[in-house]
Design a protein that fits this description.
heterodimer; A: about 325 residues; mainly alpha; MetI-like fold; 2 domains; 17 helices; about 75% helix; B: about 450 residues; alpha/beta; D-Maltodextrin-Binding Protein, domain 2; five-stranded mixed sheet; four-stranded mixed sheet; 20 helices
């Protein structure tokens, strides 16, 4: 027995001075580094493809780069001039406002509420209805963006499906894309994006244990109370994730609006991505357009921070 | 071992992906020349022309290949695509179809090369009159583009529709008011027809600025640019009046609906549908329009010359010469990143020799710039409107020859779109334009005095 126990403290005594040896710390750092070495390619990829564009966008927005003219080759650093010009440009506040309207109406309200509503309703629907509804909703989402955009264009066009259908009832529909451009693109984006929210919420609702809702029902909670006080708090985390994803996706919507209205008439549906495109590629002011894109990036970052903060799941 | 293999694979993939970003495509060895030009809507004549020249050139220069790069995009997008292609050696064309108003800014951008050393040895150059040579010159006075043809602009009108509305044909408007009155008369008589079209809005870009706005402004007392002071004009009454005319047409229901006019493809629709189908009574457009209706065009219409008449655009109140026009045109230019400049020049020379210029000018209804083409009976007899449009050259105007012009032109289309949709009054839009161009050229380069 002693032969077994005695070496232990000796070994232990020997090890503790070892821990304080200066070489040991270095060695551990090296080991840690070596262990994370396999992550290097991934980190590199992230740096190049995610961080790289951000830096290059920031730098580009501080130059006077353009598509033609002397500044196409002799690009100069102009500091914050593009931003100063942007903030004094009357089109800019309008574009910000339209972007916020588009975001709130089509993503935060439209896609989320409709998506949640659909998934709640589908929970109590029978299998056939559920299958049909899901197929129809998901179809819009599966379509490539440009195809979906043209479909929406054909639907809202002056002589398009919507007005033809209204015509059956003797209603002369307005030219949606011209008279109500924001309304048309918001509806189109809700149509296109709802499936994503619906799928996220369907998955989340399936995770709500039926016992809890049943217990609430036994306690006398009405349907609305059960939904508001039991279901919503339990899927809170899905809501926050989904809000963030749809927000970021909607902020950058370009093709849909470009195809449907081209940002017009005038500037009536020119959101920030369309304004950035117009300035950079139609008018050839690459630096100025990049400044708008950078602002868009910041807006997206702000929203993300807000969601992460405000909807931070408490430890439960 | 397996794990290391995996890591090695990952690293290798990363390296491949990274190098993929920098490595260019197949580098040209100088035996291929790339020719970029526009092919869109009704404009297919350039494509036909380039295909024919490619054959001739390849037959004459064994071992050389011509790669044609037709860019199928609206005019504004064509300029963007061309500029983006010019930025990288892998995509930059050796020869490109270049609008005269872009020559100066693209020369400054270093996208195109001066051709002086070639032109000095080119016997045909003496066939190009001075004003034509000027059109292809850069700010430094060197020649960057060889003109293919020029153009003027006027009002195409449907004789029958105007006669039905009680107007005398041939119709000769004396002022802007005459045009509005005629449009009103057509509308009263036949509410189904679109009385008058004038290009307007951002989607039509240079077409709106030049065929539309500047056809108006050049008939007022004011100008866009003061060429003596070398400054841009702000706060001019002519600018406001021109915008007022646009407002009168679009907000007064005398033109297409604003949504029709803002459709990106309206230019194609007008000349291949509305006009041949008698749906549009008057159209302010270019001399080249009849090219669409020729046998070689996209919408052959043998009766076009019987149905359509042409009238010069009057000045605002009939002042000055009583009529006005605008002229531009396109050139062939040589890409600065070319690997074989001699071959590129040979191609340009072949494409614009007498016979080829003649073929192109006839097919695309261009006003010939080469003297030997312009006086050739085959040219003169090919199209009954050539005489009228060539004669307009006497009273024509040119766009300001500065490298800032294309940016200013964009601001004009912004102002046009704002008034045609009723979002701004002419005064507001003119004020916004003044602010915008002052921002582009700086306080020192604007004046309130017109030429």
């Amino acid at each position: 027995m002693t032969t077994v126990t005695t070496p232990a403290p000796v070994g232990g005594a020997e090890r503790s001075p070892n821990r304080n040896r200066p070489g040991e710390k270095k060695r551990r750092t090296l080991v840690a580094l070596a262990r994370s070495a396999p992550l290097l390619p991934a980190v590199l990829l992230l740096a190049v493809f995610l961080f790289g564009p951000v830096v290059s966008s920031l730098y580009g927005s501080l130059t006077n780069a353009s598509l033609s003219g002397s500044t196409a080759t002799n690009v100069e650093f102009v500091g914050v001039k593009n931003y100063v010009d942007l903030f004094s440009d009357p089109d800019f506040p309008k574009a910000v406002l339209l972007t916020v309207v588009f975001l709130v109406a089509s993503a935060i309200l439209g896609q989320n509420v409709v998506g949640l509503g659909l998934s709640v309703l589908m929970q109590s629907a029978n299998g056939v209805v559920r299958g049909v509804v899901r197929t129809i909703v998901v179809t819009a989402w599966v379509l490539p963006e440009i195809v979906a955009s043209f479909a929406a264009y054909a639907f809202f066009h002056d002589g398009g499906t919507l007005n033809e259908m209204l015509g059956v009832f003797g209603i002369q529909g307005p030219n949606w894309l011209y008279t109500f451009p924001m309304f048309a693109v918001i509806l189109a984006n809700v149509w296109r994006g709802t499936a994503f929210s619906m799928l996220v919420y369907t998955a989340a609702l399936n995770d709500v244990p039926p016992e809890i809702t049943e217990a609430a029902e036994v306690d006398g909670a009405t349907g609305w109370q059960r939904f508001r006080l039991v279901t919503v708090p339990m899927i809170r985390r899905s809501i926050s994730t989904n809000l963030m994803l749809t927000t970021l996706q909607t902020l950058s919507v370009f093709a849909l609006i470009f195809v449907m209205t081209g940002g017009g008439p005038g500037t009536d549906s020119t959101t920030l991505p369309l304004l950035a495109y117009q300035e950079a590629f139609k008018f050839g002011e690459l630096g100025f357009g990049t400044a708008i894109a950078t602002i868009l990036l910041l807006v997206g970052a702000l929203f993300s921070v807000f969601y992460i903060r405000a909807l931070k799941p408490e430890v439960d | 071992m397996k794990r290391y293999l995996g890591i090695a694979a990952a690293v290798a993939t990363t390296a491949l992906v990274l190098s993929g970003c920098s490595g260019g495509g197949g580098e040209s060895d100088g035996t291929t020349i790339k020719v970029a030009y526009s092919k869109f809507g009704n404009f297919t004549q350039m494509d036909d022309h380039m295909k024919a020249v490619k054959e001739q050139y390849e037959a004459a220069n064994e071992g050389m290949t011509v790669e044609l790069v037709p860019i199928e995009a609206l005019e504004a997008d064509y300029f963007t695509k061309l500029a983006l292609m010019n930025q990288s050696a892998a995509t930059a064309p050796d020869v490109m179809y270049e609008d005269t108003f872009k020559v100066k800014s693209d020369a400054e951008a270093g996208y195109i090369l001066p051709l002086d050393e070639y032109i000095d040895e080119w016997d045909d150059w003496e066939q190009f009159p001075d004003n034509a040579r000027e059109a292809g010159a850069g700010d430094d006075g060197k020649i960057y583009g060889v003109p293919m043809g020029t153009d003027t602009r006027a009002i195409w009108y449907n004789k029958q529709l105007l006669a039905d509305a009680g107007l005398t044909v041939p119709w000769e408007p004396k002022s802007w008011q005459d045009i509005l009155d005629a449009a009103e008369a057509v509308k009263q008589k036949n509410p189904e027809t679109i009385p008058f079209n004038i290009y307007s809005g951002k989607g039509q870009s240079e077409g709106a600025s030049m065929q539309g706005f500047q056809m108006l402004l050049s008939g007022t007392e004011d100008t866009l640019y003061n060429s003596d002071e070398k400054k841009w004009v702000t706060g001019s009454q002519g600018f406001i009046d021109s915008l007022q005319f646009i407002t009168d047409v679009y907000q007064g229901d005398l033109g297409p609906t604003p949504q029709q006019a803002l459709d990106k493809n309206v230019g194609t629709t007008i000349n291949s549908e509305w006009i041949p189908q008698n749906k549009l009574a008057m159209s302010l457009d270019g001399s080249w329009v009849s090219g669409t209706w020729l046998e070689t065009g996209t919408t052959p219409w043998p009766e076009w010359n019987d149905v359509m008449g042409v009238a010069a655009m009057p000045t605002q109140d009939g002042q000055g010469a009583g009529r006005t026009s605008m002229s531009g045109g396109w050139t062939l230019a040589m890409g600065a990143k070319t690997k074989n400049a001699d071959a590129a020049w040979d191609f340009i020379e072949t494409a614009l020799d007498k016979d080829n210029s003649l073929d192109y000018d006839v097919a695309a209804s261009q006003i010939a710039v080469r003297t030997d083409v312009g006086t050739d009976p085959a040219y003169i007899e090919s199209n009954p409107t050539f005489e009228f449009f060539s004669e307009l050259v006497k009273d024509t105007h040119f766009r300001p020859a500065t490298s800032d012009y294309s940016k200013i032109s964009n601001e004009i289309t912004v102002a046009m779109e704002a008034v045609m949709t009723g979002q701004q009054t002419p005064e507001e839009a003119a004020k916004a334009y003044d602010t915008a161009i002052t921002g582009i050229v700086g306080d020192d380069n604007v004046t309130t005095k017109s030429d």
